[in-house]
Design a protein that fits this description.
The chain is of the alpha/beta class. The protein has one domain: Rossmann fold. A 7-stranded parallel β-sheet has the order 3-2-1-4-5-6-7, sandwiched between helices. Strand 5, helix 5 and strand 6 form a beta-alpha-beta unit. The longest helix is centred in the middle third of the chain and has 22 residues.
Length: about 250
């Protein structure tokens, strides 16, 4: 790995790190040298497996549990992180999220509120609560989506949460810039994870490839590599931006 991507001596928090993009990114950050806090909501065994994979390879990691759908979930997680890392967090990848595909008339208030609670409220307050330990050179990466920039299926409410993330990135970057903290987002397209399980079917694969300039289905590692880049010194002059990592979807 190029020297500019080395994260030796850095500490990272990855939310939703027990599977999918979060898991791949936690492992990639550890491979780049970072100590990784592996957050999970419900999948304790899967989080433990991520920690074991990292530590078996000589890295450092530990698992943290928090329900980010709860009103105080982000606050509790941030307090635990501060207790572990002390006065400095170098990397925050606020990856945890939920999805929901329904026609507009199919959403309930509960559906809508859950999407915004996990996808918008949690990262907002996580950044707020971790601000005291984010400093010069720290990097925050949020998760946007292709759905924030183009219509894809019946994802109206989910897409709205990701549009909110694109807006928050700019405001956070402005608010934290004077302290030398960079804030960006990655915007994946369809990725072969449990959240996009349809991409693993023949029909879903054909639909996905029809959207993209690059003709293969994305894997979690494809997104993880972009997050490592944004977390590293190679991206030291990038902030307030949303990086599309979608294989050229809907060009």
């Amino acid at each position: 790995m190029p020297q500019t991507h080395t994260l030796s001596g850095k500490t990272a928090l990855v939310t939703g790190a027990s599977r999918g993009i979060g898991r791949a990114t936690a492992i990639a950050l550890a491979e780049a040298g970072a100590q990784v806090l592996v957050h999970y909501g419900r999948n304790a065994d899967e989080a433990a497996a991520v920690v074991k994979q990292i530590t078996d390879a000589g890295g450092r990691a530990q698992a943290l549990q928090a329900d980010l759908a709860a009103p105080d979930g982000a606050h509790k997680l941030a307090a635990e992180v501060r207790g572990i890392v002390g006065g400095r967090l170098d990397i925050l990848f606020a990856n945890a999220g939920v999805a929901g595909a329904k026609p507009v008339e199919g959403y309930t208030v509960e559906d809508f509120d859950t999407l915004f609670a996990v996808n918008v409220r949690a990262p907002f307050f996580l950044v707020q609560q971790l601000m005291p330990i984010l400093g010069e050179g720290s990097s925050v990466v949020l998760v946007s989506s292709l759905a924030a920039h183009a219509t894809v299926g019946t994802l109206s409410a989910y897409a709205a949460t990701k549009g909110a993330i694109d807006t928050l990135v700019k405001h956070f970057a402005q608010a934290l810039g004077e302290r030398g903290v960079r804030v960006n987002a990655v915007a994946p397209g369809v990725v072969a994870t449990d959240m996009s399980s349809f991409a693993k079917t023949d029909e879903g694969r054909d639909f996905t490839l029809s959207l993209q300039a690059l003709k293969r289905v994305a894997q979690p590692d494809d997104i993880a590599s972009a997050v490592v880049f944004l977390a590293s010194d190679a991206a030291r002059w990038i902030t307030g931006d949303t990086l599309r990592v979608d294989g050229g979807s809907k060009l």
